[in-house]
Specification:
The chain has 8 helices and 12 strands. It is of the alpha/beta class and 243 residues long. It folds into 2 domains: 98 residues, Rossmann fold (3-Layer(aba) Sandwich); 116 residues, Orthogonal Bundle (Arc Repressor Mutant, subunit A), CATH 1.10.10. The strands form 3 sheets. The chain has a 5-stranded parallel β-sheet with strand order 2-1-3-4-5, sandwiched between helices. Strands 8-7-6-12 form a 4-stranded antiparallel β-sheet, with no helix packed on it. Helix 6 crosses helix 7. It is globular, with a radius of gyration of 18 Å. The two termini are 37 Å apart. 32% of the residues are buried.
């Protein structure tokens, strides 16, 4: 879905993406986008930050309440502070206007590949759920938290669901599976986002900060994600695979 109040941009994006065999839904306002998303699930959302009825960041928050689709912010606001805020609010990527359609397409494909990892994790190629315990689940437990890798869900000690984006879940899973091993920022970015384009240099750090907040991990006294100065990050939780 492309959300933008500029009909010229919507037309240009639709034409380019549909020529690449994509079905594109459009919305010219925040309310139109929310109503459409409630009726029609989509694979990825392109979100302009300036709309006639919504502030883009406020709309991003409401979108996250009704859709798990990755969100790519497409905005004329290209300052570092704008990028930081957008990523901190849960955007999966950030593209500034004016943009090249080829680059936009590459970023869409990148986030879709990351999203498709959840489908790969759930199936073994025969239409059956992949698993390590015969019940379609790979469960990883650490510090009172439980990750269901087959369903891409995580729960706290009270069995309450913790809402993570696909990108956040993939990042956490990579780190958990390499627990107690320092991983560079470049490596973490590559394995969770791909290498099709130059990354925003603070994107990974922002995503780590979002993870810490959602998991209740204090960066000053971490129990899960430790900053390794000059290198990157290391997962230090007590990991147990339950299935």
């Amino acid at each position: 879905m492309a959300i933008d109040d500029d009909p010229g941009i919507l037309s240009m994006v639709c034409q380019y993406l549909e020529e690449d065999n994509n079905k594109v839904y459009t919305a010219a306002s925040g309310r139109e986008a929310l109503d459409s998303l409630k009726e029609q699930p989509v694979d990825v959302i392109l979100l302009d930050m300036v709309l006639p009825d919504y502030n883009g960041l406020a709309l991003l928050g409401e979108i996250r309440n009704i859709s798990t689709a990755p969100v790519i912010v497409v905005s004329g606001k290209g300052e570092t502070a704008d990028r930081v805020v957008g990523l901190e609010m849960g955007a999966d990527d950030y593209v500034t206007k004016p943009f090249h359609l080829r680059e936009l397409s590459a970023r869409i494909k990148s986030v879709l590949r990351r999203t498709s990892l959840s489908a790969v994790a759930r199936t073994n190629g025969n239409g059956k759920e992949a698993n390590s315990n015969g019940n379609g689940k790979e469960i990883i437990e650490f510090d009172g938290l439980r990750m269901d890798c087959g369903r891409y869900e995580i729960f706290n000690a009270e069995n309450e669901h913790i809402p993570l984006t696909t990108g956040e879940f993939n990042l956490l899973k990579v780190m958990v599976n390499s627990a107690n091993r320092a991983m560079t920022r470049d490596h973490l970015f590559d394995v969770t986002r791909g290498e099709e384009y130059d990354s925003f240099d603070r994107a990974l750090d922002i995503q780590i900060n979002r993870l810490r907040k959602k998991l209740g991990d204090d960066p000053k006294s971490p129990k899960l994600i430790k900053t390794v100065r000059g290198i990157g990050y290391m997962f230090i939780g007590d990991v147990k695979k339950a299935g």
